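User: Continuing from earlier, I have the next pair ready.

Assistant: Great, send them over.

User: Here they are, in order.

Assistant: Folding the first of the pair now:
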Amino acid sequence: MTPDDRALVDRFLDMMAAEAGSSRHTLAAYRNDLDRASETVGALGSATTDDLSRLGADWGELAPSTVARRSAALRRFYAFLVDDGLRKDDPSEALPRPRFERPLPRILDADEVQRMFEAAEDRAASDEMVAVRNLALLELLYGSGLRATELVSLPRGAVRASQPFLMVRGKGSKERLVPISSRAQAAVQRWLDLSPGGTVWLFPSGKAHLSRVRLFQIVRGMAADAGIPPERVSPHVLRHAFATHLLSGGADLRVLQSLLGHADIATTQIYTHVDSARLVELVNARHPLATRSR
């Protein structure tokens, strides 16, 4: 990437951080995608539609989701250049627009989740610190639908007996209230009673908090303990289970959007496909025309 392009990218990322509230991980992903595009296009700041059209062939072997992400990064970059008067035209119309169906999320059924809890509770019955911690992690993942990063970065005082909600900082540093069940509160309090103090994190590890990778390993270990193939389970799968089972229980889609911290209702609507059988049954049973006879 040329020095001029690097200066433009730095300005773009500063804008994304300040105005869009993009996280450090999002900014790093944008920078990486723009770096990769410059390898094919050359000078990004002065690229033409012909230059960008070459990306279609260069990205031919990539997954549709990767192509969509890289195209989105370039579109935002050129929109920024136009908005700031750094160039007069926007060449991003030449970028590839992959068509793909969004895959349905992997989920666990209620019986499988119950088996995970039973195995975790049996291990925690010994009051071994690690087992008690793991049960608290499971309660918060499935009981509150937290993202992995949101969970591992919770401060030590996040859960309080007098407050049935957690204040969570999610994507883009946006805060939201998340309900916490009484059983999750009890599991966390049990963990706090056993865990050493002197740390700002609810789930400390060394000098920092538990990593997302370690959380992933812990969850897979709990799945194996319950006789569930570990490759089927991850923190995100438990978040999907939280959402799907709530929807099955009659939760409103807008409420679910708020609980999950989705900026766009379209992201939450994926769960209507997962639970389509229940929705069809609901229409047949509750719609005014369902009981109308000729």
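And the other member of the pair:
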Amino acid sequence: MADFAYVSSRLGNVAAATRKIAEEIFYAAQAAGHEIWFMWGMGTSPEHATGRALDLMVRNEAGGDFVRDYIWANRARLRLHHVIWEQHITSTVVNPGYRRLMEDRGNATANHYDHVHTLHFAGDYQAPGASAPQPSKSVTDVAREVLRGDWGNGQDRKNRLTAAGYDYNAVQAEVNRLIVGTPAPKTVHQLADEVMRGDWGNGQDRRNRLQSAGYDYDAVQAEVNRRLGVVGVTTVARAVIRGDYGNGAERRRRLSAAGWDPDHVQREVNRLLGIR
């Protein structure tokens, strides 16, 4: 297999953390028996121009699957914004965790069938197994700093607070309290806005945080799904069982055209049918 010095020779002047992320992924893939044979970094596209994007060229589907899954499994530590593989994008910000079909761009490279594309938020590199940063100030002190403007705004504020080890939602709640007193409970519509911005995390973490704050997770997620036009995978799996999507290659084509991952749907079909 190629060595990292050669593979990374065209990364260009990417951020130091991006280069370390590229190195980590390269050696993780190699240890698992997969090859990243070349990497691209700086470029003229909006994402590559930031110095925080990578194109990781792979030999085959198994290699791409491994790279994509490794990045996603380590998304918090690697400060992932989104990852693209085989014409599907999975974001930590827009509809977090949902693997969405992208438009057809005309060829295998443009559709990301020969490489994995990844974009990361700004911040320092955190190596595997590194201890999470420990907060050094009280939530109230940090909230006062936020009100002074010390932590920036929007997603930048969230990234910086999280990177420093603080609970963004706890700090923001304290900011609200300092400004207007204890805030009234938020509506499902307000919470759906926050979920779609990524304020409440992903998966089980999102569920736990919403429920701990006293909100109905299922109602909030239903509103998010309604806005995004997302039909639950279980509903689609039941339609497959009824025969609504045909069989074999035709089923895969029709599911993909509708924006679904055929393998994800098939797993749900198998679960409903009790197939292991």
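Worth noting for the second one:
The chain is about 45% helix and 10% strand. Residues 135-184 form one domain.
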